[in-house]
Amino acid sequence: MIVRRFTSHRSTRLTSEGLQFLFFTMAVGIAAINTGNNLFYLLLSMMLSIILVSGIVAEYCLRGLEFHRHLPDVLFANELATATLVVKNRKTRFPSISLNLFDVCDGQDIDRGLIIRELSPGASTLLSYPLVAARRGQLRLDGVRVTTSFPFGLFLKKAYFPVQGEVVVCPEIRPLADEILQDLLAAGQEHTAHRKGYGSDLYNLRLYQAGDDSRAIHWVTTARTSKLTIRETEAESQRRASIYLSLQAPESHGTEFEEAVTYTASLVHHLAIRGYHLQLTTDSSRSSFGQGNAHRFDLLRMLAFCEQREPHADIRPETEWFTEPQDTENSGALIVVRPWHGAEVPRSAGPALLIDPETFLGATYAM
Amino acid sequence: MPCDQALRLTSIGLASVSFIGLVLGASLPGWLMFLTASALMVTLLRTGPVNAITSVVRPVPLSATTWNILVLSGFLGFWIDSLWISGDLLASGIHFLLVLMVIKLFNLQHRRDYVHLYAISLVAILAAASRTSDLWYVPVFLAYLLAGVWTLLLFQLTKDTAVPSADLPRRLEPLESYSGVTPKLFWMANGLAAATFGLTLVMFFVIPRVNAGLYQKGYGENVRTSGFSDTVDLGSIGPIKRDRSVVMRVELPDRPTHEVGHFYVRGMAFDRYDGRSWANQLAHRRNLSEDSPEMFTLRGSKSHQLLSRGAALHQHIQLEPLDTPVLFAAPFAESVHGKFPAVQSDINGALYLPFPSSTRIEYTAVSRPNTISPDDSRPQPITYPESFLRHFLQMPVQSDRIAKLARDISESKQTVYEKAVAIQEHLSHNYQYSLDAPLAAQAHPLEEFLFVRKTGYCEHYATAMVMMLRSVGVPARLVTGFLATEWNEYGNYYVVRQQDAHAWVEVHLPQSGWVMMDPTPADGDSLAETLPAWHRVQSLLDSARLRWNRFFVQYSAADQLAVVRDIQTGGVSVRLWTLDSLASFLKPLTAAFEAGMSHLTGGYLTPVGTLVALLLAGCGAMAWLVWARPWKWPRRAAGAAGDEQVIVQLYRRTLRQLERRGLRKPAAMPPLQFIRIIQEEWSTASTAVACITELYCRARFGRVPLTTEELHHARETFKQLRSLSRS
């Protein structure tokens, strides 16, 4: 355990200057052995000491460091976010100097351009850097790699600090043109009757009756008419939409599939911020209807992890309730996004809008 | 001072130190010294802050091709120098090195140019080390080490700023960037240099010495001596009597410091005099037997046990490289211990190496002078072998005046010894010592000395005595060597210089054998009597030089073995002492333990059982130490405290402030709930309290370290809170 304590997470590499220095050290060593001149041995000792001091000081620079990573709760693919790293020098006497910091992800060092010139003993510092995820899914950062070539620049000493960080990367959100949204939803609304219920949009004004909720009093009309007037809202079902994303696509349609996911995410996003109750269904999972930011992020997380399936593959539902029949009357409009023409379209009692690859691969995004 | 400017300065310093090393160690041509010094000065002025000067010494823009042509010209010059001018590969290599340094100094533009300059300076200091081993190398080496550490450090610190990053904007932590040489950087660099120096010393003594050299060569020229060849002209010692070059240093470990006086160091003995020069006709050398490794003993020494011998005198001699193979020691050497391939001796008792050493050598000699036997104070018939008389009663053709003088002096004396003493005293008392005696030019220098000038120096006195003794039938020979008078009180050794070269006489007494006698009167200018202050400094320096030579220049594998043996011996002593101390310290404990255990076990606990129990307890304690690492406890606490303590104190002060304003936090109330009460009761202060509380909770319960900025923000918020008034 003690051996591991000193050997794990450390590696050393020669710099170009270090290589030259080592070459000269060897040359002086050979000259010392060859001539037996003790002054050569003195110079050799000096050069070896410099190498030794270099290693010891570099080790002290990397020792006693503590890292805390702060990542955003959710990331969107190709969208700039800010990550922060708190670095603390736990040493009581020695500073840490000339540190270069790298994120370690899947064994790869990712240079974020983070440099700490000096971190005094006991001091801490906050480093923030832009974080861009290239693809949706789970972004996992394994740790932080710290390198230093202090004090003499002869060796590059590396230390690995396991500081795990995980964040869900949602699909990229692209702006959708308003007219497209209107076109998508108009057909659905034509087939639906207006009725009162719990919602946010105004349905009707009527006089107050005993038992009505006092919070529903419409104060403006009450003041104008001097009669206690109640505000009735439109039923939420009128603003419902169910989005179906087909996961079936041949392997050659990887790009189309990703575009379909991105389009679906953009649709979810734009409809959600318009107050729609949304349900997202894929070949393997189905969400409940819901509204608000939390639900929106749930749907986006769902999209973050959906995977492309080969056509006619045996698809197992991820949730038990997926197999249960749903209330098709209150499901609102059904928007079907399919990345491949051959994908099956679910049957629907209500209006269904089919979005094929030509739609989301064309110029349908607002610029 | 900005770091880049400091780097330029230290780089020039590094080059200057190596240049000084070469100037002191190698004999450089004047033009080359001037050129290099000028280049260093100009480059130094360029780095200065004064614009007027820098504009004058502005670099001349030359293309890379031009610089390369200059280097090639220098290389061509190196071959010309090597083949026709100096004729020495090493010397011409050093010249070429300095030419390269000058070219590089005028072309210091990129970082790689600096790296080249460092490489040149390293080779230069190496070349200086190959040319000398004198004491001045110590300050040069120390300066080089200091400049080297500074240069490497600054080179590293300026690396990030000098090389623009490829595609990423560097986010430099703005805490304390080393943009200039701050006091902290100053002490850090010097501390690193000190640490490097300490490690250098350790490594120097630890690195195993391997003498596998294909090119083992000395440095510099050997000291030219006089009087130590097979033929010596009379008067040849005189000219070197004004040379203060150190020839050897002799330590006498057996002799107390207060007994030091004049000390004779014997070189060669001569048996034949032709009227103008001495010759050694018994110069046939034979190898001494090597009784044990590196211990050479004179074969005849054991047979001399019949003679009356004095006490053995041990000498540790450090001999400078001389142009003679003679090994020096006090009269009469019995054995020599040194790292030599062989040691030889001739019949006259002189010791030789097979060839002159080109490096400084160290050896130990044991000598045992003959004492005067009481039998020699009685007249007795003397019979010498013919061959002995042929050599030691030989006289040149000369006038009878010398013989008559000798007879006049010694005719009243009965014994050989008395005659010798009479002649010695006559010469000592009736003649004056002077180095200004141009007797060598005379046709009969000895007669000129004895009867005309009556002034001379050691050679004349000794020659006169030998001739006078031989004329009255006493075998004698002339001996050359050194008469050491300069005692270094700081290092407790004799410093023997060229000016101490001396000649004296060895007289053969029938029973005592060869005894030494010196007719030369003491020189009036005694060094010790007129010891000026600067001479004390010289003594101190010479003592340092001796130590430098002994512990650094002459340090060898044998010394390493000796150190290891000392450590082993010391280790045993320390171990025994530690065990004894531990036993006496633990005695009451073990006694109590044994008593307790015997009580528990009914007296069946054996001493072995006690030992096993103690061992187990010791192992347990060791395991606990390894596991718990108690030496880390205070550090852990201190590390954990740090900023946490600061925010905890700040939070307590915040609570006291709120309490003064009538808002007391119940002990059982969580901090976050208390914020809600503050929001209701004193909304103006709620933001500040919430801020401090959030940081407090993070550091105290979340174990998340706070940054300096956050702590600063918390302090500022507390100040704002204090300035608020509650209505």
How would you portray this structure in words?
The complex is a heterodimer of chains A (367) and B (727). Chain A has 367 residues and is an alpha/beta fold. Chain A folds into 3 domains: 1-170, Immunoglobulins (Immunoglobulin-like, Sandwich); 178-192 and 237-361, no CATH class; 202-234, no CATH class. Chain A contains 8 helices and 17 strands. Chain A has helices at residues 2-7, 16-35, 38-62, 178-190, 219-225, 254-273, 293-305, 357-361; strands spanning 10-14, 65-70, 74-76, 81-89, 96-105, 108-119, 124-131, 137-141, 143-148, 155-161, 165-170, 202-207, 229-233, 240-245, 277-282, 333-337, 352-355. In chain A, a hairpin with a 6-residue loop joins strand 9 and strand 10. In chain A, helix 6 packs antiparallel against helix 7 (293-305). The radius of gyration of chain A is 32 Å and the shape is elongated. Chain A starts with a helix and ends in a 6-residue tail after the last helix. The model of chain A is unreliable at 1-7, 319-323 and 363-367 (pLDDT under 50). In chain B, helix 13 (445-453) links the parallel strand 16 and strand 17 (455-456). Chain B is an alpha+beta fold. In chain B, the strands form 5 sheets. Chain B has an 8-stranded antiparallel sheet. Among the domains of chain B are: 3-162 and 178-206, no CATH class; 231-367, no CATH class; 557-628, no CATH class; 633-723, no CATH class. Helices cover 51% and strands 13% of the residues of chain B. The interface between A and B is large, with 59 and 69 residues.
